[in-house]
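Handout, page 2. Input:
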Amino acid sequence: MNFLRTSLVIASCTFTALATAQDEPSPERSMLRVNVTSQAYNFGLPWQKQNPGTRRGLGALIPGNRVLVTAEMAQDATYVELEAAATGRKLTARIEAVDYELNLATVVPATETGDFFAGMVPLAIDNAIKPKATLEVWQFEANGAPVTSPIELSRVDLGAYFLEDQFFLIFQANGAVQYRAGTFTLPVVRDGKLAGMLLRYNSRDQVADILPPSVISRFLDDAALPPYEGTPNFGAKLTATLDPQLRSLLKLKDVEGGMMVTGVTPGFSADKAGIREGDVILSINGLPIDSRGYYKDPEFGLLGAGHLLRGGAKVGEDVKLKVARDGAVSEISCKLLRRNPEDYLIDPYMFGRGPRFLILGGLLFQELTQNFLQLAGREWRDRAPFRLVYAQSNQDEFLKEGRRKLVFLSGVLPAPGLIGYERLRNLIVTSVNGKPINDIKDLAEALKSPTDGIHRIEFSDFPKVIFVDAAQADQDNREFVPARYRIRELQRID
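Output:
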């Protein structure tokens, strides 16, 4: 009898331990492979798309049968599927929400799931991570066997995620990580909770850049309450005030720290709050800003002040700014607004949508995008056409002129009506037929009104003006351009 009782107790304990183990997160139960087919637009030939490509990464399973990946993984996706690493079973999926600035996306099933998620355990988010914490990078071998790599969180700073000129909170950790079957996305875990997403890894220095859990939580909370808002934009350029002569000029003799405003974007947060060029921001929400542009974060130490105006703030939030202007210090309340990519004079990124363009008898006009400039390569700021790079760096000048977008002649498709114009390219359009051109729709409208059958097209640089026979351009658009260059779509203006 005692033996039977003991056996039952042992069996009960064994069953309980087994059940508990099955409920605990692990790579094979909390992580899925994500396979993506993508096809981006061709920004040099805007009527075309590039050749399709594929990506394969690892996603973290989160509640609701959703899988978290990076936006870099999801960009320009045309087909998505989930794959169980151990069995190879696959499930058609779709992108649910994506934020290219925060470099995060969620993937959800696109069809009935059946028992695909049976036995899977979603990961909760760990928002209590401190420096020196020990983390694990999860991945799979090619055969589906799980692999974990321990790393130690060593530093917190602001850094780039995926897009240029977009800086958010970033964790840096030290440790050896050997990439296996995942390339674009690797979940980072602590004690069975999601502690971040690995963005990149420097094998020489053994330093991993990790997208932190606070940013993941922010993204998921925002995505749960549509419409998705994203991160706010202050709408001003700031620079350090270390130079004593500059501080004297700004009348900061009796004031410590601060960052000077060197430019204000019309119509956005700083402009609407009354911030001006030459103002010096001394504190944000009571946190002093030093002359290098840092503040002391109560959790992570010194961080760039930009965190208080973007990643650490929400759209619609009011921030309190202490501002020095002409020797006087005052407080200004600034409501942080969202600046979508299409709100910029030059779109900073375009995924899943093509550039707007118009062809006139072989003249190829486009709205300038950063994607077009990046056709010059990684060092595009030095290699792309100077006048276009200048415009990208000084967009506020054009916005003050009333421009909504920057229309330019990107090139010429040789055609009968354009003899002598074949070498024209990368010229900013100022007016057509006497009408100012502030976006591609203005161009389309202006081309309806030639003078005496002639289009007069003016540029900001040499040759300043060209003339195009309207009837010949229309004929070339109907007959020559589609046949010679196999172009089915002569414009995309919406």
